[in-house]
Amino acid sequence: MDSKVKREPGEARWKPSGTRIPAETTGYIVFNETFAPGWHAWVEGFPQPISWAHGFFMAVTAGNEASQAVFRYEPASFRLGLFLSLLYLPLILSLGGGKHGG
Question: Domain 13-96: which topology?
């Protein structure tokens, strides 16, 4: 990364659908969150690769001042757990049935 890295905190807005960060200049949008597998980023609705910023944080390239980045944490383990839970839910309900003998 070069000297175009935005170093001041932006007006990030957290929502359940992801954290939205507006760009104020061209260069990079830096998200002050530690990088971990499972993070995904979109700029103006298009998937973008995540780069390292300052050795710990995440950054994506901002196309222009009007760009907005969305970072969302979607680990594969969560999707797998959700899938397996929904898959076995009918089995669990049929075994227990919610009925208790008196």
Answer: Immunoglobulin-like (2.60.40)
| Cβ burial, residue 58 (10 Å; 0-12/13-18/19+) | buried
Tell me the two tokens of residue 18. Answer: 């992801």
Indicate the DSSP class of residue 5: B
The encoded tokens of residue 14 equal: 């957290």
Q: Where in the chain does DSSP place strands (E)?
A: 13-15, 18-22, 27-34, 39-43, 46-48, 51-53, 57-62, 68-73
pLDDT in tens, 42-95: 988 889 999 988 888 898 988 776 678 889 988 888 889 989 999 988 888 888
State the amino acid at position 99 in one-letter form: K
Q: Rounded to whole angstroms, how far apart are CA atoms 94 and 17?
A: 34
How many residues are listed for the chain in this entry? Answer: 102
Residues 61/101, Cβ–Cβ less than 8 Å: no
